[in-house]
Amino acid sequence: MVKQHGYQVDVLTSMIPQAKGVHQEEIQGINVVRTPALYFERMPSFLPPPFTLAPSINRELERECAGNDIFHVHNRFWYPPSTYAKVRRRTGKKLMVTVHNSRPRGISDNVDFWGGLFDDIIGKRIFSMCDRINCVSHATMVDTIPETIRGRCSVVYNGVDTSKFKPGLDPTPLREKLGLGESPVILSNGRLIEQKGFQYLLEAFATVRREIKDADLVIIGKGPLKDELNQQVSSLGIGGSVRFVTGIPEHELPLYYGIADIFVLPSLYEPSAVVLYEALSSGKAIVTTAAGGNQEIVTGECGDVVPVRDSPARSRSMISLLLDINKRHKMEQASRTRAVELFDWDVITKDWDRSYRLLL
């Protein structure tokens, strides 16, 4: 937006420990301001950690953002409705919200209830005050936005840097580092929490191992379920073939996609998974679930979409793709083409430009 379309972008965010006390800085032409905040590592499961509360946020908004044309919030959880109302009343500026997290459905009774209650009481009020609402998938819009105000909504998908995530990266050094040798590799990536469905992936992988005895599974991620998942790995007898990896520098992440023969995302709930865009751009055949926006991102030409929690269906798909090289290669080519044509950041930026201009 800054480099190609001439936008001035100011980002107001929370001061977190990783920022090391830097209150204001410029990052790639974007003015970033961090306001003092309380920092919480552990939250109810429908709110992804970390979570921050900024007591002085209203004052900071008025001071730092008063000259801007549009006030754009990237979720509905961070500010109370009073903050939205104050911005409208005192600045007279346009309000936009991006809905990155849809109303939870199918995670668990507890998460579905409390997440739904939040939207019924607070989310609905916030949406009603916004001049424009962008959702990261059509499924997110349908699940989350009251039908009476969907006329103000657009779908703007997440994007991917297709020059960074790309086919053809040399997998040899990383395979050697992880001790993978020449074995087939299944890759997954996500937080180790209930909604990501990794317990079902492990069940399916145990079946894969009975058919393809040298297959390996690499899971990138950290989270509260790591010990539980490790116990499941042991009970399934697949300990030597499953690797949990974390702490990967950002610039090394494309290399992990490079080692994969297929990419699998077993989510129970997924508005618009960034990892699917990364897998597409890396030219991978994909197995994912019919959850949320997954079916909008991954088509049948790029991979298989299986029912949520259906471990047998997932294992059949994984085995088929690992054994059928021709089928897998066709999907790899289709994935790369889809990423470049639909989800490259240059394409998504044009969608954002159109969305902003509707308000100006």
Model description:
The protein has 360 residues and is of the alpha/beta class. It folds into 2 domains: 2-159 and 345-357, Glycogen Phosphorylase B (Rossmann fold, 3-Layer(aba) Sandwich); 172-343, 3-Layer(aba) Sandwich (Rossmann fold), CATH 3.40.50. The chain is 41% helix and 18% strand. It has helices spanning 2-5, 57-65, 81-91, 109-129, 138-144, 172-178, 198-211, 226-236, 253-258, 274-281, 294-297, 311-323, 325-343, 345-357; strands at 10-14, 24-27, 30-35, 38-40, 51-53, 70-73, 94-99, 132-135, 153-155, 185-189, 216-220, 242-245, 262-265, 285-289, 303-306. The strands form 4 sheets. The chain has a 6-stranded parallel sheet, sandwiched between helices. A 4-stranded parallel sheet has the order 6-7-8-9. A 3-stranded mixed sheet has the order 1-3-2, covered by helices on one side. Helix 10 packs across helix 13 and helix 13 (325-343) packs parallel to helix 14. The radius of gyration is 21 Å and the shape is globular. It starts with a helix and ends with a helix. The relative contact order is 0.12. The mean pLDDT is 92.
